[in-house]
Design goal:
This protein has 11 helices and 11 strands. About 40% of the residues are buried. By secondary structure, the chain is of the alpha/beta class. The protein folds into 2 domains: about 150 residues, Rossmann fold (3-Layer(aba) Sandwich), CATH 3.40.50; about 140 residues, 3-Layer(aba) Sandwich (Rossmann fold), CATH 3.40.50.
Length: about 325
């Protein structure tokens, strides 16, 4: 198939450089090419002439946009030429946030299909459209890899950004530091905790592989949707790090707490489980290995991208 991807451009990133962990567009492109599809990529900020020229020269079977994008005018023009539009949407933000609702409703009108990595989004969108379909996020095992030998030298690692206005993530991380644990934070907004910003995939891999516990703390606010997973869940487990995550509705449909990962419901329970698993490395590492196996059996990028294409072909009759 011929596929045109539209993706967000990150600083210092181009089509030959996918070091940034958030550059899903480039990584999906590379996987599609490994599966022998013909793929081109443009970015949200590409100008209209680039879009027109690429569409005219390439004639894609469909266009895949990663994320919401910046606007719909260019997409509407391309759709009028006869192409199908698909959005791959990996974020938690959805219709319950009134400020975002108008843009989602416009997207429902413009796109022919929306693949969401949050299963609960499908039910919430049902009164407005039947174009929203669930398919899981992926772990890119070709990207998160390292030939180094690691020792577990850090107690806890967290990769993620400070989110406003909710203080929950910061509050939970501070409690870990206050207990005297060696916590490493990679992400925006945590400089006062010793955190730093670096989204290089190799560095993130090294931190996960050299840490005893990988934390997943939700960005704040209510967990409104089933399987409202951050990609962090797949990254921590896929790198072979033990995952301790805030409870996510229906998580047990995919992973078994106590077998593949473990969960907490409160700050106090989080601290109790950090203490327990640091004192019981055999149990912790057994769970980490079983979690990694689950990811490699079902959620590596090659498996999941094939699922994306299967859904797209069936829904759009391509």
């Amino acid at each position: 198939m011929k596929i045109l991807i539209i993706a967000k451009r990150f600083s210092n990133i181009d089509v030959n450089n996918d070091l940034n962990i958030y550059q899903d567009g480039i990584r999906i492109k590379k996987e599609l090419e490994r599966q022998k599809h013909k793929v081109r990529i443009l970015f949200y900020d590409s100008n209209i002439k680039e879009f027109r020229r690429c569409y005219s020269d390439f004639c894609p079977d469909f266009i895949l946009q990663t994320g919401m994008g910046r606007g719909f005018d260019v997409l509407k023009e391309l759709k009028s030429l006869g192409t199908k539009l698909v959005m791959w949407y990996p974020d938690a933000y959805w219709l319950s946030q009134e400020s975002r609702k108008p843009k989602f409703l416009k997207a429902f009108d413009v796109f022919d299909l929306i693949l969401t990595t949050m299963k609960g989004h499908v039910k919430v969108a049902k009164p407005y459209t039947n174009k929203v379909v669930y398919c899981s996020h992926y772990f890119d095992n070709t990207f998160y890899k390292s030939n180094k030998k690691f020792q577990k030298i850090h107690d806890v690692v967290f990769v993620g950004n400070k989110t406003n206005p909710s203080p929950q993530r910061e509050e939970y991380l501070k409690s870990v530091i206050d207990q005297g644990y060696d916590l490493r934070i990679i992400g925006w907004g945590f400089k006062h905790f010793g955190g730093f910003i670096n989204y290089d995939g190799e560095l993130i891999t090294d931190y996960y592989k050299s840490s005893k516990i990988g934390l997943n703390i939700i960005s704040g606010g209510e967990l409104d949707y089933d399987l409202q997973f951050s990609v962090r869940v797949y990254q921590v487990m896929g790198c072979g790090c033990f995952l301790l995550t805030e409870y996510i509705p229906s998580i047990e449909k995919m992973f078994v707490p106590g077998k593949h990962l473990d969960v907490f419901h409160t700050k106090e329970e989080m601290l109790e489980k950090i203490d327990y698993y640091l004192k019981h490395p055999e149990i912790r590492e057994k769970i980490a290995k079983q979690g990694q196996k689950k990811i490699f059996d079902k959620y590596t990028i090659d498996i999941v991208v094939k699922q994306y294409l299967k859904i797209i072909r069936e829904k759009l009759e391509l």
